[in-house]
Amino acid sequence: MDSLNSLVLAGIGIVMLLGGYFLYSRFLARRVYALSADFKTPAHTQRDGVDFVPTNKYVLWGHHFTSVAGAAPIVGPAVAVIWGWLPAFLWVTIGTVFIAGMHDLGALWASQRNRGQSIGTLSGRYIGPRGRNLFIVVVFLLLLMVICAFAVVISDLLVAQPTAVIPVWGALAVALIIGQMIYRFRWNLAMVTVVGVVALYGLILVGNQVPVSLPESVLGLNPNGQWIILLFVYAAVASLLPVWVLLQPRDYINGVQLFIGLGILYGAVLIATPTIVAPAINTSTPDGTPSLVPLLFVTIACGAISGFHGTVASGTTSKQLDKETDARFVGYFGAVGEGLLALGAIIATTAGFQTLAQWEDVYSSFNDAPVANFVSGAARSSTQASAFLSLSRPPFWPQWPCCSPPPPWIRASAC
Question: What is the pLDDT of residues 216-260, one digit of tens each?
């Protein structure tokens, strides 16, 4: 079982995840949530052109998927495989099908059935005003912590890789243009998508030729501090703009880009068919590795289940839902997309090595450079995989800052 071909694991995982969408989500939509195309969503009843905007379900899926799928579905699985690939695989696939998909769909449904209220406001019905206010404060503080963590990660990226600056910030200009194309000029969505993706990859080529670095010191701030200030200014401005101007088009085009990256990753597996060298159950974990239970379920949150998705589903997504029946595709399939990313991370970090000894050398300690393990593992699996990865890496790096949580989460915590 330890020498399983990665193509088999990928096939089983994809069938389980897609089966969850086509079968289980249909049951939830019909029998549990009773979604109705006749129900008037808040996007119509409270339409204001700012937060409440009826949105094409594919564009809204891009917003929801990109907002919830950042670094976590890569980092979590890349760390958790130290216990073996089987526990991580089971938790990602079963968790996505029966928990994450249901959670995202359910949070979206509950919010749009209650005037687009955030999860914090909705909680007051069950825990009272005092409990609601405390819950909102806790959520707000946690979101501030996450925003700060993202700012540090992104600033480190921009300092370490000056070639990423133009693709990252240029994507915002692309998003602004795409928003105008969709809402003002009424372009065909397929045409807009092609133009946006081509522009994003063109920016990557420009960035490679024109790296950008900030001065060593400005008002006593090093480049990391300067980028953090700029990122906070961007987040503040983005959170005040109407969603159709930047938030929607930015997330949609990055969602398409990320799905292209996923296609390239799984295409590499299909062509290279590397063998999984990591053990199914690792009985000789390094010293200092915590117990599998309960840490597995904390290590892999995004990619199996994350309560933070509720802040996105109820904070912005519910206010843009055109038809209630779109919630199945937007919410459940958004979670499936994140599960596919987590599954890809598991394969990359277990089949991307030539021998078990090489894998054990990389996983010699717990939580040691998980993203680097994901990238290097996928690249080392074969020549073909390396070629694919060279194309798929760009969508991930611009993804973090360009779909960073501040705009939707600031809105969510303020509701």
Answer: 999 999 999 999 999 999 988 988 999 999 989 999 998 898 888
Rg of the chain on CA atoms, in Å: 21
Show the 3-state SS of the chain: CCCCEHHHHHHHHHHHHHHHHHHHHHHHHHHHCCCCCCCCCHHHHCCCCCCCCCECHHHHHHHHHHHHCCCHHHHHHHHHHHHCHHHHHHHHHHHHHHHHHHHHHHHHHHHHCCCCCCHHHHHHHHHHHHHHHHHHHHHHHHHHHHHHHHHHHHHHHHHHCHHHHHHHHHHHHHHHHHHHHHHCCCCCHHHHHHHHHHHHHHHHHHHHHCCCCCCCCECCECHHHHHHHHHHHHHHHHHHCCCCCCHHHHHHHHHHHHHHHHHHHHHHHHHHCCECCCCCCCCCCCCCCCCHHHHHHHHCCCCCCCCCHHHHHHHCHHHHECCHHHHHHHHHHHHHHHHHHHHHHHHHHHHCCCCHHHHHHHCCCCCCCHHHHHHHHHHHCCHHHHHHHHHHHHHHHHHHHHCCCHHHHHHHHHC
pLDDT in tens, 142-171: 888 888 888 888 898 899 889 989 998 999
Cβ atoms < 10 Å from Cβ of 358: 14
Q: How many angstroms separate the CA atoms of 36 and 190, rounded?
A: 27
Tens-digit pLDDT profile for residues 260-270: 888 988 998 99
